[in-house]
Design a protein that fits this description.
single chain, 321 residues, alpha/beta, TIM Barrel, Non-ribosomal Peptide Synthetase Peptidyl Carrier Protein, Chain A, 9-stranded parallel β-sheet, 42% helix, binds flavin mononucleotide
Length: 321
């Protein structure tokens, strides 16, 4: 097994960086249910340099989130390096570069997955960031730009050669966005390339303990990263851990889910303010209360609620507690 630069856990589980989802409060909750490594939402390198308050706040984390990585994106050498240097002063455990975001407004600026069309630039920008900070630098990317262009095996070798210390691969191309199923065959090919010695983190569609076990065995990756399946379901890390250990997953009751959900809402409000926390929490409810009878009516109320008090009233009223 390859060595991670920032932890010694055997087969770590990562919470995926997700904009407006993987904030500090959600990261802490995922850690408490067994995520081993968490990463910030992606932060614009230009915004870090311009000292934009909203972006700088994304660099803040709590000690109990460690190991914690700050993820930056951009396409300009000086900005990326300067942003990495600033991020380093927050003392995360590593700096992750986002070379995978498929969103149009990022790609049209040459950042995120746009770089998959210019591998020499990807390599040289990554090398510049590696050289500008003392912390380990890692990369998260996709298989390639589209079906006809999936150079991830070459990319992995070249990024390793310029000094990255971990590579996360989402098994889709940019043109797939989040559609279809993730193709893990190329992730396995990267991992099984005898030239590769850095840890390879597999990402894409892990949504159960069973699948985690299957993909771990089939593709031999050093770690798994879970994104969408953790939204409103931080318990998935415990489920995966139990299944990997050959045990039956723990059962989480409505009461546990309600408690966890309210804890997340309150702690998010303490960090980013009530309005934003109430808004962003909306993404999580379907996950937390999947399968709960009559939740549809509550959800309509939650989608309109403007305050924590309103959310609490809806969630706690007439429930099975
Ligand atoms: C709402 C949302 C926001 C995301 N934001 C980021 C991000 O900031 N940085 C990043 O590298 N990937 C981001 N991603 C991609 C995820 O990290 C992950 O690669 C992708 O969802 C595939 O994993 P999954 O199938 O487990 O969800 C985002 C995905 C979603 C759904």
């Amino acid at each position: 097994m390859a060595q991670f630069p920032f932890l010694t856990v055997d087969f770590p589980l990562f919470l995926a960086p997700m904009e407006e989802v993987s904030d500090s409060s959600f990261r802490a909750i995922c850690k408490s249910f067994g995520a081993d490594v968490v990463i910030s939402e992606f932060v614009s390198s230009e915004a870090i340099i311009r000292d934009v308050d909203k972006s700088k706040r994304k660099l803040i984390f709590h000690e109990d989130e460690r190991p914690f990585g700050i993820q930056i994106f951009g396409n300009n050498r000086d900005s990326l390096c300067q942003a990495a240097e600033i991020a380093e002063t927050y003392h995360p455990d590593f700096i992750d570069i986002n070379w995978g975001c498929p969103v149009k407004k990022i790609v049209t600026k040459g950042a995120g997955s746009a770089i998959l069309k210019d591998i020499p630039k990807m390599v040289s920008l990554t090398e510049a960031v590696v050289q500008s900070v003392k912390l380990p630098v890692t990369v998260k990317t996709r298989l390639g730009w589209d079906e006809t262009n999936q150079p991830i095996v070459e990319i992995a070798e070249r990024l390793q050669d310029v000094g990255i210390q971990m590579l996360t691969i989402h098994g889709r191309t940019r043109s797939q966005f989040y559609k279809g199923t993730a193709d893990w065959t190329l992730i396995g090919k990267v991992k099984n390339n005898p030239r590769i010695f850095i840890p390879i983190v597999g990402n894409g569609d892990i949504d159960s303990g069973e699948k985690a076990l299957q993909y771990k065995n089939e593709y031999g990756v050093d770690a798994l990263m879970v994104g969408r399946a953790a939204i409103g379901n931080p318990f998935i890390f415990d489920e995966i851990r139990q299944v990997l250990a050959g045990k039956c997953p723990n059962v989480y009751l409505y009461r546990d889910k309600l408690e966890t959900c309210l804890k997340q809402l309150r702690s998010a409000a303490a960090v980013k303010g009530e309005k934003k926390a109430v808004l962003e929490m909306r993404r999580h409810y379907s996950g937390y209360f999947k399968g709960v009878s009559h939740f549809k009516e509550k959800k309509i109320g939650l989608m309109q609620a403007q305050s924590i008090e309103e959310c609490e009233n809806i969630l706690i009223k007439n429930n099975e507690l």
